[in-house]
Amino acid sequence: MTRTVNHNSGQIIYHLPKTYGTGYLKKNSVDRFTTIVTYDFSFHKSITMHAVTDKESIKFKFHLGEFPFQWGIGTKEARFVIAENESCIFPLGNMHYIGRYEAGQRYRGIDVILQPERYGPVVECFRANSMIRNLLTGQLVCKKYKMTARVKELLCHIINCPFVGAAADLYIEGKTLELISLYFNEIVLKNDKKDAKIRLSQKDIRGLQRVKKMLDECFEEPPTIAELSKLVYINEYKLKAGFRELYGTPIYRYVIDRRMEEAKKLFEERPMKVKEVASLVGYTNISHFIEMFRKKFGVSPSKLC
């Protein structure tokens, strides 16, 4: 990989050589105790990568890509699998990691690495978690968690930091602390009362997958909950609760996220007016569109025009 260093921010960017694939990995050392790694890349050919870590720390992995990421520890290749909108926590230190990447698939996400010198109480809390305890005792068990809508919003704010230099460091450090506390409270401790478990049959799951596909194809003017319920033969309560359970976000939030992602894509492709983009992604109220865009990416859409 080619390596670029931003001496003002301390950020290191690794670009994948064109002969191997496309994309990047950005490593941002907010301070000597906190490291944020964002990545978005794909390989032309399937590849297995090895890494050895010797410094004790805790890594939070948030997977945003559509294709599952596979990795193992020691000689156990592809022992763990993490899918879209899933996350996990595991320790680093005196371990040999093996990552498996499939050809043509996009891998996208964020890793947050915390050092015990600064985050001792936090690290100890996660050590007490059964998943961490099992890993440390040699039992290769990786517990995965679905990301909530609020956690995903914070990840987007970190990825799309609107500041540079020292201001960016302060912004990212603040968002990281907020992310970890929210993640521990909402997901690990399961204090988010809205995420009640619901039993889903294979038929229900197939129906919910159809719903997601329909929303992806017509998020500008999506069907109502009642219409979706009739189309996939799932009652409205199970449709809403099941979608949240399967994809980690309610239907209305998923539609908003899809609209915002498409809006950002349109702004990046060519110069367009805010009003024009808002209309294309399904908004008649421009103020509402601007509010949702700023909430999702932490920056006003006018900055991208």
TrEMBL record:
Keywords: DNA-binding, Transcription, Transcription regulation. SMART domains: HTH_ARAC. Residues 209-305 form the HTH araC/xylS-type domain. InterPro entries: Homeodomain-like_sf, HTH_AraC, PchR_regulatory_protein, Tscrpt_reg_AraC-type_HTH. Signal peptide: none annotated. It holds the Pfam family HTH_18. It comes from the Bacteria. Coiled coil: none annotated. This is HTH araC/xylS-type domain-containing protein. It comes from Sporomusa acidovorans (strain ATCC 49682 / DSM 3132 / Mol).
